[in-house]
Amino acid sequence: DTQLTQSPSSLSASVGDGVTITCRASQAVGIDVGWYQQRPGKGPKRLIYAVSDLHDGVPSRFTGSGSGTEFTLTINGLQPEDFATYYCLQSNTFPITFGGGTRVDIK
Amino acid sequence: EVQVVESGGGLVQPGGSLRLSCTASGLIFGRWSINWVRQVPGNRPEWVSHITESGTSKYYADSVKGRFTISRDNSKNLVFLQMNNLRDEDTGIYYCAITGYWGQGTPVTVSS
After folding, report:
1. CB spacing of B46 vs A46 below 8 angstroms
2. Helix (H, G, I), strand (E, B) or coil at B63
3. CB neighbours of B97 closer than 8 A, spacing ≥ 6?
4. A45, A94, A101 ranked by CB distance to B102: nearest
5. Are the beta carbons of A45 and B107 closer than 8 angstroms?
6. B42-72 pLDDT, tens digit each
């Protein structure tokens, strides 16, 4: 199975800050990497697919990048609605796996 | 607007069965493969099963293989997850995911 390790597991930031979350895969996953946002009590919502493509309606302050086994999600200019937990996902091989999550809190 | 709606969850005793359903609107259902994903609140999501567009190929997590069966009816925009021989560890919120769109989930509780 492909293991995904996210870092940091949590971070505190202020509205307007930029933050970067990293996801490292235990083996190459091609471009089959996505990022999801989950707010408390809600289901996950896709932000990014295929490493860097924005899902429908997702603001451009969210950016995905990376290759091989290391991928990043960057949020430029945090907004109040961005305080949530973020997960990376790989769908290159079954079983599809998720990272452990990064919780973004208000400083 | 794409909407995904899951149903069929509930409380069941260990060893029991449930059949989850998922429907979607706002997209051409038969063009997309579909996944079921579950999550215990506070934990990362866990992939459960995948079915290809035509339903020809199906994949399962090792933890559910032999107990769960995924199927779909493209004429009715429906996908199903038949869950048999349920265990305590199958408890969670079950989500249907179609091309990046997820529903709000349906809760499954396995408990005596």
Report:
1. no
2. coil
3. B4, B34, B35, B36, B37
4. A45
5. no
6. 999 999 999 999 999 999 999 999 999 999 9
